[in-house]
Design a protein that fits this description.
Length: 181
Amino acid sequence: MTDDISDSHQPVDPVSEAHRAADGTLLGIQDHIEAEETLEYIMYWEKEHGKIKDHAEALRKRADDYEKRRLLTIEEKLYFHTERLKNYAAKELEHKKEKSIDLATGKLSFRKQQPKIDIFDEIKLTKWAAANNLLDSLFEKKEMNVPRKGKIKKYIEKTGEIPEGTDFNRQEDSFTCETIK
């Protein structure tokens, strides 16, 4: 099988010695017939160009589909084994101060995640802060009051009260499984 996917009706392209001057420069088109023939060459080569691009795109799509199929299977296996290790590590570290387990082939560890503050309604938050006399402590003064997530987080942790217009989401500890390479 060859890489040539071209049509067997390929015209003889006149970019040859017959259309070149003695110094090698290309000669100009002399009449309408030659101009028409040249347009036909352009149409043919544009069609060939399109065929090659389409063929290459089809090959890329097949390769991408293959990659997705194969990686999905492997990612499912990675998830399965990682979850098994996560459960094992959680059980082993349940009543210990350590947050990691060193093994001969790698390390299992948990890392505390910081709670996440989402401000979904800044107007409600501003009104709530003003009503509770907290504008100065929860907002930064610029041209306009700008809510400070860090200050809001400290307020929530200190008082346990979640201001209107915000969400406070505790994050699950992240688990990492590092293998020795």
